Amino acid sequence: MRIITKSLRIWFIVHFVVDFLIAIPLFIAPIKILTIFGFTDINSLLARLVAAALFGIGGASLLINKGNADSYNALLSVKVIWSFMAIVALLISLLESLNIFVIFILIIFVIFSITWIYYKLRLSK
Fold it and tell me: What's the pTM value of the predicted model, to 2 decimals?
């Protein structure tokens, strides 16, 4: 029987908090928030869609907190794919235009991606 460690449950809660802390202001005031971080060409629809994705995956992290190993394993698969593709997107964006905020977000995604891959491999054993 696969057991979900306390540390993985804590990481899921951390992920929920981080996603919601970013998503709420991005959803409510995307132009103001992104302007603060140095963006000039802002599409508020796309910013709100990113916020919606953060609400979705962050919210799922909270909702699954009491779930079983199969539930965690499935959501870890989503998190690995999401974080990897986000890293690729952020790297491409950095090649187009250097922005310190994008570097900060990239670091967050790398930390989460490494974490999710670690737990995915551990849970798949």
Answer: 0.90
